[in-house]
Write a structure and sequence with these properties.
With about 230 residues, the protein is mainly beta. It is about 15% helix and about 35% strand. The chain contains 3 helices and 15 strands. The longest helix has 13 residues.
């Protein structure tokens, strides 16, 4: 009886392992895919505003372990510049979100304050891109880096839309159409809605066999993450 009682006591002393979820990835520069170290990465829960943060290492890698599940927004800061990942991150118990983040720290002066908004812009749905038919037929892939301001109504101010870099004008036009129809939750600062700069890289890429548009939702570290354009 003594041995049985001892085993039961030891077993009851082992704490239950709480579910853990992780978000992480690698931060690289849009111009040459060079790893960016020293970037502060903030993961903020949309529902309760709880946040965790870390700093990317010299190779651009970072890992975050939020306390709860839910939908999150990712914010990248370097010096006085900030960027917001335009898609929300959904984390369930024990889930893992990994991605290569291609960033361009080039926001213009004067929107949402130089230290950023309290609550950043959030897209209300994923961007839906039209793959240009002529480029699809020719199996041409490419990336468009765009910059624009989301106003207080949650719409992109197309007067501020700028193509920073593009593989083809047809890709640029497809991005322009997608951004103009997108809807966002406006940024807030000190409780008031404010305009905010958004920098975003849109990747038009084909599947591994190059016969159809990539549709996998799982990101890859070996290639830039693909948006999911429609035919």
């Amino acid at each position: 009886m003594r041995e049985v009682f001892l085993v039961l006591c030891v077993a009851s002393a082992i704490p239950a392992v709480a579910p853990a979820q992780m978000a992480g990835g690698k931060v690289v520069d849009v111009s040459d895919r060079h790893p960016l170290g020293g970037v502060t990465v903030v993961l903020r829960n949309i529902a309760n505003d709880e946040a965790v943060q870390t700093v990317s290492d010299s190779a651009g890698w970072f890992t975050l372990f939020p306390k709860g599940t839910g939908r999150y927004v990712l914010i990248f800061r370097r010096g006085l510049d900030f960027l917001v990942y335009p898609d929300t991150v959904a984390l369930s118990a024990d889930s893992v979100f990994e991605k290569m983040f291609v960033v361009a720290f080039q926001p213009p002066e004067g929107t949402a304050g130089r230290d950023g908004p309290d609550l950043p812009v959030l897209p209300l749905a994923a961007f839906r891109l039209r793959y240009p038919p002529e480029l699809l037929r020719s199996m041409i892939e490419g990336t468009v880096v765009a910059q624009f301001v989301v106003d207080t109504s949650g719409r992109a101010d197309m007067r501020t839309f700028k193509v920073v870099r593009s593989a083809d004008e047809a890709f640029s036009q497809a991005v322009r159409e997608s951004v103009s129809s997108a809807r966002f939750r406006a940024a807030k600062r000190h409780g008031l809605k404010v305009r905010q700069v958004v920098n975003r890289a849109f990747h038009f890429c084909l599947s591994a066999d190059r016969s159809s548009i990539a549709s996998s939702a799982r990101p890859s570290f070996s290639n830039a993450d693909c948006d999911r354009p429609r035919r």
